[in-house]
Write a structure and sequence with these properties.
About 50% of the residues lie in helices and about 10% in strands. It is of the alpha/beta class. The strands form 2 sheets. A 4-stranded parallel β-sheet has the order 5-4-6-7, sandwiched between helices. A 3-stranded parallel β-sheet has the order 2-1-3, with helices on both faces. Strand 1 (about 5-10), helix 1 and strand 2 form a beta-alpha-beta unit. It is globular.
């Protein structure tokens, strides 16, 4: 098996959950059948959303490049970033690190296309939404993207920054209100396009019709590193 390198800390709980997902989704019967992982947890990496929106001059790219290069020196064959907003910098990071970095945006859209979905809602940070990362890739593959209204987007950002990142209780009613708006706009599946939203899915029964982009990243990392994937994880949209 190939060794997986994780550019982590963006944020820390999401990184820990990502490792848990990879282990949970691997079809292994003993320790020795799990894939090797090297995790570099860098929570001091500058905020990606603030930089993308021009609210901060602290560029996170060089620290992520340094983290990736350190992982490569330690033997990582494939790299992942359990931070969706960071994929705004994907091309630059991969070119500077010099090893394949799985593109979570492309992999998520490809998974939806594979199973025939056509109208996709997106819950994500302001940086991810405004940069159009998911929208552009979904539309490139012939799907329609639906994003929250300004009011609903504020609710999503509150969940991400004021609840999960702050270690506070999740205000699930805000999640449900944002979901209801996207469903009313025709969303068949809603992508949880932020790793903090993945934590909400982990802790609450959010119901059918969701795709956790972090689960897609775990699935594809397992496959790319030549480890076996459990059968129940071949389709990741909640039922």
């Amino acid at each position: 098996m190939k060794t997986l390198g994780v550019i982590g800390g963006l944020g820390p709980m999401a990184t820990a959950y990502y490792m848990e997902l990879v282990i949970q989704m691997t079809d292994a019967s003993c320790d020795q059948e799990h894939l090797p992982m090297i995790i570099y947890n860098r929570p001091d990496t500058p905020d990606r959303t603030r930089y993308i929106l021009g609210l901060s001059n602290e560029d996170p790219q060089q620290m992520m490049v340094e983290t990736g290069r350190a992982l490569v020196r330690q033997g990582a064959d494939r790299l992942v970033i359990p931070c969706i907003t960071a994929h705004y910098f994907h091309s630059y990071l991969e070119s500077q690190i010099g090893k394949p970095v799985l593109n979570l945006i492309e992999e998520t859209a490809a998974h939806l296309k594979k199973f025939g979905w056509s109208t996709i809602g997106i819950m994500a940070t302001d940086g991810t939404i405004r940069s159009g990362l998911f929208q552009k890739e979904l539309e490139r593959l012939g799907m329609k993207a639906v994003i929250p209204s300004e009011e609903s987007q504020k609710k999503v950002m509150h969940l991400i920054y004021e609840n999960v990142k702050a270690g506070k209780p999740v205000e699930l009613s805000l999640f449900q209100e944002a979901e209801a708006e996207l469903r009313a706009a025709g969303a068949q599946v809603i992508v949880l396009g932020c790793t903090e939203l993945s934590m909400i899915k982990k802790d609450f029964p959010i119901g059918p019709g969701f795709l956790d982009a972090m689960e897609v990243l775990a699935m594809r990392a397992i496959e790319e590193c030549d480890a076996p994937l459990k059968e129940e994880y071949h389709c990741l949209v909640t039922r």
